[in-house]
Amino acid sequence: MSKGEEKINLKKDLKTSLEERRKELEDAYFALLNILEDTEENRKEAEEGRDRTLAIINNFSDGILIFDKENKLSFMNPKAEEFFEMKAKEVIDKSISKLSEIPLFEAITNLLGKESKKIFRRELAFKKSLILEVTIVPLKKGEEEIGTLIVLHDITREKTIERIKTEFVSLSAHQLRTPLSAIKWTLRMLLDGDLGKLTKEQSEFLEKTYKSNERMIELINDLLNVTRIEEGRYIYQRIFCDFVEIVQSVIDSYKREIEKKNIKFEFKEPKKQLPRILIDEEKMKLVIENLLDNAIRYTFPGGKVTISTELLENEIEFKIEDTGMGISKDEQPRVFTKFFRGANAIRMDTEGSGLGLFVTKNIVEAHGGRIWFEAEERKGSTFYFTLPLTRPKME
Amino acid sequence: MPKILIIEDEEIITNLLQKKLEQEGYDVEVARDGEEGLRLIREIWPDLILLDIIVPKISGLWVMEEINKNPNLKRIPIIVISESGESFELKRARELGAKDWIIKTKFDLQQIINKVVQQIGR
């Protein structure tokens, strides 16, 4: 190859490589332009997203407070401003200790002081006319804690309605019960012949009236108990009691009933003496009454009801067995639910609120015990419950 | 004749209790509210008080607190009458020295008489 030819080749090479580079650069330029365009779009989108989120938070019907990692208030939405009757700018960036000097904030900062890693809720009365459900949520980014979110939900209206409902139920129950006691006592006196001798027919009518009245009293008591359980206002007063004595006293009060119905009854007292246990006497009586009442009611004349109590390792077991109508298999899962009544039970006896076993289960469980049953239709039912042994605390 | 003071605002209840207790041979006085009750206690010095927890003017539990201030009055046995048998009501009554209690909807008159006899005899 001559020198001339070499030069030409070199020029050619240079030209192609230049051409290639230009093309590359051009590609890069367009790619960059595209990226820039995307970024701009992303930025716009992010901005829109942020505005949207902010709009949601600002127009949220719940109050929102956000504390940062250093426990300084970093955000407060308009609803929260309304609850606290102050502007965000007055309190933003203030620390918890500074905020706790503001009366309405104190309740919140008290809750925050309780260093919690989990979400928790609390109802707080801020003013007479403002009850808030405060939810505290630790904010996390992966494992790192980046602050705390506080949601303030206004439950003033719900609470007011709840209070009115409770007052209404207790008031009407009281109002209903008072005349029923008077009726009960009057009828009893008439029946006992204290107000003059009655004819057989008069006695029979009055006996039936007395029974209806008793059912009404039971129903009102049941309703009142259920209302209280549901509101968490069912108060227990535990004292050390002799369990067998309580069982015996309930059995005594049913003696007449058992004889009248012509069923056999047996109470197997425990082999070993039971230690005294910590229970609410009146409520425990109600448990045993409910179980015994059911057993008697749903056992046919000539049948048998057996009660036994036993001392187990850490608990006392109460067992009541009857040879009554039992409970059908498909109905068994619902036995302890409110208003449950077995189809066979309704056929036999139309009365009954279906609240007894619901109340019973609640009382047993509130004592730390368990309740269960075995039943077969037309063969009978056996209900069991346990109560944990509680020994007096040593000083 | 042993004297019994009934402090209770329900008229039918007091009428029935009074009649039944008088039939059993007791001397019965009735107060319609806590204020009248406290006055009658000091006036007639009953042998036993049947005290409804919810009565007008001064509640039954308050009446008991007043009685407890006077050691002589404190000796009079008290049977409280409760409408509902609320555990906390009964517990408070027991703490204040009630000897026994009656739950209106649960007890019959005869059982009440038995409780009275248990406390002061016939």
Give short descriptive properties of this protein.
heterodimer, A: 395 residues, alpha+beta, Beta-Lactamase, 5-stranded antiparallel sheet, 5-stranded mixed sheet, elongated, B: 122 residues, alpha/beta, Rossmann fold, 5-stranded parallel sheet
Q: How many domain regions of chain B?
A: 1
Portion of residues within helices of chain B: 40-55%
What's the CATH H-level homologous superfamily of the largest domain in chain A? Histidine kinase-like ATPase, C-terminal domain
Report helical residue fraction of chain A. Answer: 40-55%
Please report the total strand number of chain A as a whole number: 12
CATH fold title of the largest domain in chain A:
Heat Shock Protein 90
Largest sheet of chain B: 5 strands, parallel
What would the average pLDDT of chain A be, to the nearest integer? Answer: 86
Radius of gyration of chain A: 38 Å
| Portion in strands of chain B | 15-25%
Number of helical stretches of at least 4 residues of chain A: 11
Rg of chain B, alpha carbons: 13 Å
Average pLDDT of chain B: 88
Largest sheet of chain A: 5 strands, antiparallel
The end-to-end distance of chain A, rounded to whole angstroms, is 115 Å
In DSSP terms (H or I, runs of 4 or more residues), the helix count of chain B works out at 6
Order of helices and strands of chain A: HEEHHHHEEEHHEHEEHEEHHEE
Given helix and strand content, the structural type of chain A is: alpha+beta
CATH superfamily of chain B: Response regulator
Known CATH architecture of the largest domain in chain A? 2-Layer Sandwich
